Amino acid sequence: MRKSSSPSLSNCNSVLANKIFGIPLDELQQEGQPDNEVPFIVRHVVDYIEEHGGLEQEGLFQVNGNAETVEWLRQRYDNGEDVDLVKEADVPSAISLLRFFLQELPEPVIPGSLHIHLMQLSQGKNYF
């Protein structure tokens, strides 16, 4: 059984330093790998999903993982802990975790103005 405790004031800064959910992408890049523009968590989860056949599933992002598992994984990533998705997750939970990470970004991956243009292109309209 896991012990639940809240961080003390003395270790609050280290907890915030490791946090990755809700942090802008450019800050995650500065914190982590300067040569790699994709945050570690995204690479880690996508690699797991690819290796375990998740990309073959129809409605990939429509299936929800176990909420408790997703929250537990989120906390572990935010605490800077090593996460072994093979042992600690399943494909739906990994997908839900990735979706949660993207939803928590303060700025969308695709800016609103570009999103509008992409939607117009997908409908056969070219307004660039």
From TrEMBL:
Pfam families: RhoGAP (PF00620). InterPro entries: FAM13 (IPR039102), Rho_GTPase_activation_prot (IPR008936), RhoGAP_dom (IPR000198). GO terms for biological process: signal transduction. It comes from the Eukaryota. Residues 23-128 form the Rho-GAP domain. This is Rho-GAP domain-containing protein. It comes from Bambusicola thoracicus (Chinese bamboo-partridge). The lineage of its organism: Eukaryota, Metazoa, Chordata, Craniata, Vertebrata.
